[in-house]
Amino acid sequence: RAVTDDDLRDRLVRDGTTNVQRFSWERTAQEMTALYRALASGAMAP
């Protein structure tokens, strides 16, 4: 549908561009560092 439906394609591109802003390598690294620290300290033990 996205190939033939200009409105749908435009919306998908716009929404995708907005959505991708939520992700970054810096944020991912910070979240992983926090996870590793929590695991190392035993804070996440069952």
Describe what you observe in this structure.
- The protein has helices at residues 6-20, 25-41.
- The mean pLDDT is 92.
- It contains 2 helices and no strands.
- The longest helix has 17 residues, at 25-41.
- It is rod-shaped.
- It has one domain.
- It starts with 5 loop residues before the first helix and ends in a 5-residue tail after the last helix.
- With 46 residues, it is mainly α.
Layout of helices and strands, plus pairs?
Blueprint: H1 6-20, H2 25-41
Notable traits:
about 45 residues; rod-shaped; mainly alpha
Instruction: Please state roughly what percent of the residues sit in beta strands, choosing from under 5%, 5-15%, 15-25%, 25-35%, 35-45% or over 45%.
Output: under 5%
Low-confidence stretches: none
Number of strands: 0
- What is the end-to-end distance? 47 Å
Radius of gyration: 19 Å
Question: Mean of the pLDDT scores?
Answer: 92
The number of helical runs is 2
Which structural category do the helix and sheet elements fall into? Answer: mainly alpha
